[in-house]
Every structure is written in C-alpha cells, then in structure tokens.
Amino acid sequence: MENMTQTVALIALGLFACVMVVIGLSTMKHSKTVDGFLLGGRKIGPWMSAFAYGTSYFSAVIFIGYAGKHGWDIGFASMWIGIGNAVLGCMLAWMLLAKRVRRMTHTLGARTMPEFFEGRYQSVHMKLFAAMIIFLFLVPYAASVYKGLGILFSAIFPGLDGVFLGLGSGVLCMLIVAVLTGFYLILGGYVAAAVTDFVQGIIMLVGVIVMVVALTLRPEVGGLANAVKSLHTINPSLTSVFGQGNWNFLMINILLTSFGTWGLPQMVNKFYAIRDEESIKRGTVVSAVFALIIGCGAYYAGSLGRLILGNELPAGGYDAVMPAMLLKALGGSLGGNILLAIIMLLLLSASMSTLSAIVLTSSSAVTIDMLKVFKPKLDNRKQMIIMRSLCLVFVAMSFVFATFNFAIIVSIMSYSWGIVAGCFIGPFVWGLFSKKITKAGAWAGMLGGFSTVIIMTLYSMFTNPALSEGVYAAFKAASKNSPTFGVAAMAVSMLLVPAVSAVTRAFEKSHIEHCFFPCPRSGTGSGA
C-alpha cells in the first residue's frame, strides 16, 4: 500500500509540474516591461486578483504548523483565527484599502510599497529603509513556506530519507517547489504568478473540501455531532465556542494574522494591479469566501487530530499531527491515496503561491527601490535582467535556508511577519486616508514599530530564565511571544503616525492635492 501511495503522489506531482511549466511559457509575452513583470500592466481581473490575494495569504505552514498545533491544543475555537482572517484580513482590507491603494499608486506611479512611501512622503531615504526591511525579513520568511511540505513529503516517501545529498526526502519536495516557482516567475512575472495562483487556488479549495469531508467521515470521528461529543469527553475546552481560557491567545493571533496583512507589501501589491474599480467589488466577496473556506477548513481539520490519532501526540510533535492524521485516514486504498495526492497538491499550491509573492516583492525591493536610487539611468532591459536574476537568487536562498535549517534563520522567521507589518502598517494606512500625515509622523510610525519588536524581544530575552543556557536559548524562548510583539508593534505604529504628525510640519498643499486627486489615467474621481 505504501508503494501505491507513492505512485499516486508521483503521478499527481508530474501533472502539477506540467501545468506550471505551460503557464510559465504561455505568459512570457506579458512580462517584457517592468510594469508588466511586476504588476501585469495593472490589468488583472477580479477573480485572479482575489485568488492571488488569498493564495498568498495561506501557505503550507497554516495546515501543518498552525492548524496542527492550535487545533490540537484549542480545538474548534481555533477556527476563529480563520474567521478573523476572512473578515478582517480579506473582506475589510478589500473594502477599505483596495480602491484607495489602486488610486494613489496610479497617481504616484508607485509599483512597490517603498515607491509608495517615497512618493507619498517625498523621501528617498524612507524608500531605501523600507526596501532593506523587506529584503532582510521577507527572504528568511520565504524559507518557512517549505516547512510543512518537507514534513508531509517525508511521511509519504520515508524510504528516500538520506538519498538526496543526505538531507532527507523532504528536500526533494522543497527543490520541486523552488524550481517550479523560479521557472514560471522568471518567464512570466506577475501574470504567471496570477494565473498559477488562480489554478492553485482552485486546487486549494478542492483539497480543503476533500480533506474536511474525508476526515469527518472517518470511523474515529463519526460525523460532526459525534466529533463534538468525543472531543468534549477528552476536554470540554476543545468544544468551547470561545476556547475558555484561550481567548487572549486567539485574539493576539487573530489581530496579527488579520490586520498584519494590511502592512505586508506582498499582500497589498495585489491592489496595485487590479484592472478597474468594478473588479474590486467582486474581488472582495471572492477573497473573503476563499479565506473562510481555507482558514476554517484547516483549523477544523487540525481539531480532529486527537480523535484520529487516539489522543496521542505523534513522535514528531505538533508539526507531525496533520501528516500522521492524513496518512492514517487516507492511506491504504486507491481512493484514499488519490485524496491524499489532492491534499499534497493543496500544500504545494499554498506554498508556491506564497513564495512567488514574497520573491517578486523582494526582487523589486532591490532592483526598483534600492539599485535604481544609485543607478537612476538603469534602462528597462537591464532592470528586467536584474529582476529575473534576483527572483532566481531569492528562490535559491530561501531553499538553502529551509534545507539546512540554520538555527538563527528559523528563529528570525517567527518575527518577520510582525516586524514588516509593524513597520509599514501605520505609514501606509494613514497615508491612504489622511491628508494631515507628515513625513516625521510616517518615520515615527515606521521606526516605532520596528523598535517595539526589538525592545520587547531584548526585554523578554534578558528576563527569561533560559538566558542561563546562552543568548540563543533566550532568543528562542522569547520567539514564543513573537505574535504579541507583532501586535504591539502594529499598535505603536498606528498610534505614533497621527500623534507625531499633529505636532510636525505639514506637506505643501500642492503635494497633498497631487496625492489625493488621482490623475486621469486612473479613471477615478477624488480620492479624498
């Protein structure tokens, strides 16, 4: 039966790879200019924009890491994180930000978030600082998307451990993701990413639905009603609507993973590329429904782990919960193996879409936001060559980090989301909505968010008993509080921007009018 599982998985991988290659080749014509490569010429429709946003939101980490751990520890209440992501991170973000982001980035001619900061706040130095933050913290974050894939792939192909460079079978799956993502990104840029995101989004939806139904119908679960009864018998808190004593923990994670997207450049740049404002209405609904299905489906499946695994945490800990549960529930028959292959493609799709968004953002940060400052006469052809080369470099770097599992990189990953969102959310959101925000206020929010994470981390480290075992042990212990640090950083950034702006020099009226009254090519009226 193990051979059957592996055969079905390999066939599914082969078909998936062929589709990705075809998409890369067919979208080459759309990536001949910088705007085409980065934003698809700003002509992306509602469905592709919504799926690009949703698939970039969720990587394999949510299924293997978060869903496995939070579902096991908290039970059904963990689905509040999925609901928060859908309502706050998707629907509200699209309703409040999409139209304003599209208008102002058209007006300023901004293709990246650092370019937005430069145009909105008339500061080249702010653009450079933002680009450095993106480069330093998004590249290691990209490595984390491989984590869940390696674990599941190792479980499906246990016999390959040590075969490939002695690094374990999981590295084969990581290599597949790296090669395919690099291939279609280098050829087709944002359009290739958007098309693959759409295809991968369909796979993710089908995979989650298949996973939820298959696990719910398992004899160990016996349907939803029996699952609730069985989990309540194990621990009443697992079926509590609000997780009993875990509500504070849930709120921190909801706030970080939902509002954090408002300040993440790889997420909001999806709004830059939307074709027209009519597309925003449909995109809002599609992205919210997509996130609701994916988020709630993942955490619901994780909650069933105790039932399928007999309430015994597997040898690999929380990260092994989902793989062990899926193999036990679906392995052993041709039909089950086909379902398992679909779920494997779900995880591949989730990781590749997130990776492509991060790589495009990182490569543009170096080429457009940093290199162009020092070499302003860099022509379109050279920019394209550099960006394509950097896409390959960043994919390779994230692969190396994930493969060799550098200890310090693994710890930094947990801070990436909070640091990037904490730096950018205040200056970005306030810059869209208020004409009174000053350059000093924007700098205060950006530096305040960054400093908050650093200060809270250092305090946590040097007051932690683990410090007696060394600085790294203390840093690792402090990283457990990284969601709290990230939420605090976002709050500080949002508060400092208007507070400092109220007592510092305002911009000239002509500049504010330029920012808030879009030029004719955006096809809109006043942005005030």
Q: How many strands in all? A: 0
Characterize the largest beta sheet: strand count, sense, and whether it forms a barrel. none
Put simply, the count of helices is 22
**Distance linking N and C termini:** 63 Å
* Class inferred from helices and paired strands: mainly alpha
SS strand fraction: under 5%
> How much helicity do the residues have?
over 70%
Broad shape = globular
Tell me, rounded to a whole number, the average pLDDT: 81
Low-confidence stretches: 161-167, 519-528
The secondary-structure element order is HHHHHHHHHHHHHHHHHHHHHH
Q: What's the gyration radius in Å?
A: 23 Å
Please tell me about this protein's structure:
The structure is a single chain. This protein is an all-alpha fold. The chain is 76% helix and 0% strand. It has helices at 2-26, 34-39, 46-57, 60-74, 79-108, 113-121, 124-144, 147-156, 170-216, 224-234, 247-259, 265-272, 277-303, 305-308, 321-330, 334-374, 380-404, 407-433, 439-462, 471-478, 482-501, 509-516. Helix 7 (124-144) packs across helix 18 (407-433) and helix 8 (147-156) runs antiparallel to helix 16 (334-374). It is globular and about 70 Å long.
In a nutshell, what does this entry contain?
The protein is mainly α. The protein is built from 22 helices and no strands.
What's the SSE blueprint?
Layout: H1 2-26, H2 34-39, H3 46-57, H4 60-74, H5 79-108, H6 113-121, H7 124-144, H8 147-156, H9 170-216, H10 224-234, H11 247-259, H12 265-272, H13 277-303, H14 305-308, H15 321-330, H16 334-374, H17 380-404, H18 407-433, H19 439-462, H20 471-478, H21 482-501, H22 509-516
